[in-house]
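Hypothesis: this fold can be encoded by more than one sequence.
Test: take the structure tokens below, design a sequence, compare later.
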């Protein structure tokens, strides 16, 4: 008896429909699929904020969430194509910019830091502006 193996495809409903139409025989080879919902720009932005807090104990500075939503609304094709992966991509890039900023301003910032004050991601960190 050959060893059992399985394949599960994850993707947005639109992306999965495109895949099935391009390779109809694939459906017979992939017994299970999981359709992930397409996220709105607001949902992607909220996911970025949530991931920043969970993974790095960082909060978005005031007004940054709204700026991110506005930016993502202008990049709807990218939001649709990358979906939740875009939140991860944005977070990783922003953490790199945050780290560079923190290192560059570390000594001055440490001298004026308030104990227990939240660490904040700025629009420049998140949007590269």
């Amino acid at each position: 008896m050959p060893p059992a193996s399985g394949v599960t495809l994850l993707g947005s409903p639109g992306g999965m429909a495109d895949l099935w139409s391009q390779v109809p025989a694939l459906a017979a080879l992939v017994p299970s699929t999981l359709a992930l919902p397409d996220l709105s720009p607001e949902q992607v932005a909220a996911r970025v904020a949530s991931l920043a807090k969970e993974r790095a104990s960082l909060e978005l500075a005031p007004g940054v969430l709204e700026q991110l939503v506005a930016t993502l609304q202008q990049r709807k094709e990218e939001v649709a194509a990358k979906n939740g992966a875009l939140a991860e991509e944005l977070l990783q890039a922003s953490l790199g910019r945050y780290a560079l900023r923190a290192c560059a301003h570390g000594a001055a910032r440490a001298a004026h830091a308030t104990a227990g004050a939240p660490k904040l991601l700025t629009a420049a960190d998140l949007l590269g502006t």
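The radius of gyration is 20 Å. The first strand starts at residue 8 and ends at 11.
Hypothesis status: open.
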